[in-house]
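Please supply some protein, with C-alpha cells.
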Amino acid sequence: MTPADLTRTVLHTVRCAVEADELPAVVPERVSVRVPPRPGCGDYATNVALRVAQETGRPAHEVAEVLRRRLARRPGIAHVEIAGPGFLNITLASDAGAGIVRDLLGGDGGESGGLHGEPLPLSPAPALVARLGSDAARWALLCPPGLDRDLLLVQREANPLFRVRYAHARTHALVRNAHDLGFDAAPGDVDEASAAPLLAALGDHSRVSSTRAPERLARHLERVADAFLRWQAGCPTLPRGDEKPSVVHRARLALAEATGKVLADGLNQLGITAPVHL
C-alpha cells in the first residue's frame, strides 16, 4: 500500500462513516498521511479525526475511535492507534512494503512500476552549463534560493545532487556485491523502523513524478536518497563473514534495488546522468 493508496483509504473510511451517520460531518476533499517523526508510532499518521471533529462538534477522541475501528478492518492495515488529542497512527500489514518494492522492480521503465522516464524540459543557460557542466547546471535550476551553486561541483554531503547520485551508485554497488556472493534480490518483509521513511518515499514516487514538476521531483529524489543512506547505514544488506544469505538479506537487497530504479528514473526525467560508479 503506497501513501497515495492509504490516503484514498482514509478518505473512503471517512466517507463511509458519514454515510452511515456515525459522523454527521462534511467529508473533506482531501486528507493527508505522513510518516511519524518518531519511531514506534506506526508507519503513517493522519490528523483527519481532528479536522472532522471541527465539523461535528464532537470530541476528537470520539471521532478518532469511530475512524480507528473502521480503518483497522481495511485490507493492508495491521492496526490503528489513537495518539495525543486525536491523531491516528496507522501500521500497515507486514507485506505492504514488499508490495511497493515488488511493483517498482516489476516496472519496465514505462508506465508500469510507477516509473516514467520521459525527460522534462529544462534549459539552463549556456554560461551556466560552461561553469557547472550539464548535469549540475540542470540541478542548479531546481535549487532552493540562496544555495551556492558552486557547491554542486564538490563531492560532499552538503551537495544535494552528489547525495542523490551517490545513493544511486551505492545501490548498484550492493547489487554487484550480492551477485558476487551468489544471491539475488527477492522482495519481502523489511520490518526495521528505519525502512519506513524510505518505503514511504518510494511509494510516493509515481504520484510525484506524474506531476511533471521538476523542483518537486528534485526534492523528492533528495528525500529518497537521504532515507536510503540513513537506512542502509544501520542495516547490513549483505551477509558478513561466513554468514549465509537469508530471506532478510534478499529483501533488503530488493529494497536497495528498487531505490536505485527510482533514483535513476527521477534523474533521467531531469535529464541528469545516473552513474553506477561514483
Q: What stands out?
A: The first strand starts at residue 44 and ends at 46. Residues 108-113 have pLDDT under 50 and may be disordered. The chain is about 50% helix and 5% strand. The beta strands are 44-46, 77-83, 87-92.
